[in-house]
Amino acid sequence: MEIKKVNLESKLQSFNEYWSPRVVGKLNNQLVKIAKFKGNFIMHHHENEDELFFVLNGKLFIELQDKTMELCAGEFVIIPKGVEHRPYAPEEVNVMLFEPETTLNTGNINNNMTKFDLDNI
Amino acid sequence: MEIKKVNLESKLQSFNEYWSPRVVGKLNNQLVKIAKFKGNFIMHHHENEDELFFVLNGKLFIELQDKTMELCAGEFVIIPKGVEHRPYAPEEVNVMLFEPETTLNTGNINNNMTKFDLDNI
To answer: Which single residue of A6, A119, B39, B86 could bond B43 by disulfide (Cβ 3.0 to 4.6 Å)?
Structure first.
């Protein structure tokens, strides 16, 4: 397999859909994803997977049970498995995610926001 | 364990040593590290670990057996296990690394650049 670099800005320009992560890398059974968020997501947790949210630009809010976190570009947070969380973004935010291949975006919830087959871009 | 966000810029300001990764996060038996590189590293490979280099600022070169890659801020590359690589940086570059907990910076080589016990910052 050819080793290629990934330019996140150019990958971000290739789609517009919100709450629909794209896969941009795979290593050690983990996926690197990027996503655009705007508006409200659902409260959920992941039974077996810790999840990293890294903000590339914009501002991301993550509501937890006892507080709400606010993340700007260059900041990340790791949400441990089992922890309820709800991402939201009043304005568009672009994020990079690190998580195991098994991770579903809506965790323990299946609804119309659930994405089963993510595009590799 | 309290969930805290990590600001990479402020973590980067907390150390100056080159080629000495610091651990800034842990998830799913993987580590998130940051490092400052300047000058030449050694050619090496990792027997069992794929390794991701994400450039935060500056310019990173990675020499492979058949080409040399040049990465700028916002770009990453995944070096699969077994692949010989040599990072170098004529000027300081700051990078984020994503790799399994078992990963040694010099891979299959043990020398005076090998770092065994990484600081958590």
So the answer is: B86
